[in-house]
Write a structure and sequence with these properties.
Strand content: 15-25%
Shape: elongated
Bound molecules: adenosine-5'-diphosphate
Number of helices: 11
Structural class: alpha/beta
Radius of gyration: 22 Å
Distance between the termini: 66 Å
Length: about 325
């Protein structure tokens, strides 16, 4: 009998998810599987919103941001009734395993469904790079490059007006985008949730660099830090330098994925299908030392990813 697997995207979208869907579909069909696309994350499993996938159904999506299967959050899936309805959909359609592309929350759901007999393999898809078991998450590179381009544009106008621009990038709990983008854009100061900061230190650095001829400033702030409008006002009050806040927001989630995101998404998805072929579930695929590896979901959720304090120090050492 033909074996069947499903694929879904869940939680926040990220550029490169389409590349992962394409790779799941094509790798699995090549191995002789039937593949079903599940729309709108776990909602699609609960409500039976499914589409039959074939080699051509994933044509022309590789270069597109977003996700062709759509994504959503699904509260019902946190409860037994929702999980049982999802399980029933899988049984009715002969789905033995599912590749779940998403973040930590989606992996928790994948673990719950695995425990009820549907083998699930997670792939890290989130622009924040905040998945502990993986050095890299799908969408991160594209988001950083988009943020960098935007900050470069803001810098042009900040420079023309001798202003300070306080720019908020995404990252509620993780400062990876802020740190890398801060270095790439020559930020005077970078604020991330992982490192405590004081407004006095920012003001002191601005004044010191002003004394050696600097006229415009970029302060790069991760979303989790707080209100950037208030921060800009406070900086202006304490330095006398006109300061403006910009929140980049969802622009960072969209756009055509970079080479890196497309390639890593394709690799991870291919690996996930290999696991399902072996009959292995309750796993998360990750990247460690540039190798694709996999972990037990519970173990993956307990792991800790260190913040790159060395890179953070470098950023501050060279921003003058
Ligand atoms: P992300 O996957 O990006 O971290 P969320 O945390 O919003 O995004 O989770 C996405 C979805 O995963 C949720 O809407 C829910 O359907 C499911 N989910 C999250 N946490 C759990 C949980 N503890 N148990 C079961 N399902 C969960």
């Amino acid at each position: 009998m033909e074996r069947t697997i499903g694929v879904l995207t869940s939680g926040g979208d990220a550029p490169g998810m389409n590349a992962a869907i394409r790779s799941v579909v094509r790798s699995a069909i090549k191995k002789g599987f039937r593949v079903i696309g599940v729309r709108r994350g776990y909602n699609g499993l609960i409500n039976g919103d499914l589409i039959e996938m074939d080699m051509r159904s994933v044509s022309n999506i590789l270069q597109r941001g977003g996700t062709m299967l759509y994504t959503a959050r699904c509260d019902e899936f946190r409860y037994e009734e929702g999980l049982q309805r999802a399980k029933k959909t899988c049984e009715e359609n002969g789905i033995e395993g599912i590749v779940v592309i998403g973040g930590d929350g989606s992996f928790r759901g994948a673990a719950d469904l695995s425990a009820r007999g549907v083998k699930c393999v997670g792939i890290p898809g989130t622009i924040d790079n905040d998945i502990q078991c993986s050095e890299y998450t799908i969408g991160y590179d594209t988001a950083m490059n988009t943020a960098m381009e935007m900050v470069d544009k803001i810098r042009d106008t900040a420079e023309s007006h001798y202003r300070c621009s306080v720019v908020e990038v995404m990252g509620r709990h993780a400062g990876h985008i802020a740190l890398n983008c801060g270095i790439a854009c020559g930020a005077t100061f970078i604020l991330v949730p992982e490192v405590p900061y004081s407004i006095d230190a920012i003001v002191e650095k601005m004044k010191m660099t002003q004394k050696i001829g600097k006229h415009h400033f970029i302060i790069l702030v991760a979303e989790g830090i707080g209100n950037v409008n208030e921060l800009a006002k406070e900086i202006e009050r304490l330095t006398g330098i006109e300061s403006r806040a910009t929140i980049l927001g969802h622009v960072q989630r969209g756009g055509s994925p970079t080479v890196r995101d497309r390639v890593i998404a394709s690799q991870m998805a291919h690996y996930a299908v290999d696991l399902l072929e072996k009959g292995v579930g309750n796993r998360v695929v990750g990247m460690q030392k540039n190798e694709v590896v996999d972990f037990d979901i519970q173990e993956a959720l307990r792991m800790k990813k260190p913040f790159d304090t060395n890179l953070y120090q470098i950023a501050h050492d060279i921003s003058f």
